Amino acid sequence: MSVLDNFESWKDFLGDRLHQAQGQGMSQQAISELAYEIGGYLSNQVEAKNDQEAVLREMWNAASEQEQHAIANIMVKLVQNEGIGR
Length: 86
Fold this sequence. Notes:
Helix content: over 70%
Distance between the termini: 23 Å
Number of strands: 0
Number of helices: 4
Strand content: under 5%
Largest sheet: none
Radius of gyration: 12 Å
């Protein structure tokens, strides 16, 4: 099963990566920019594997660039208490 198949697994995966980046000293600004880039990549290159990802993709595609940055920041906040860093 892929980490993308289940939204909770996806959030845990993202949370682990977030804590790893923070542990290596990555700034919040850099994390936010990386989340924005990943959001764009996922929207354009990866097929949604569940309903939640499909909704996120639709929201991302309908959003302006500024709104996409906001979505990326919200995803960072959403996963900050997920994964190994809980």
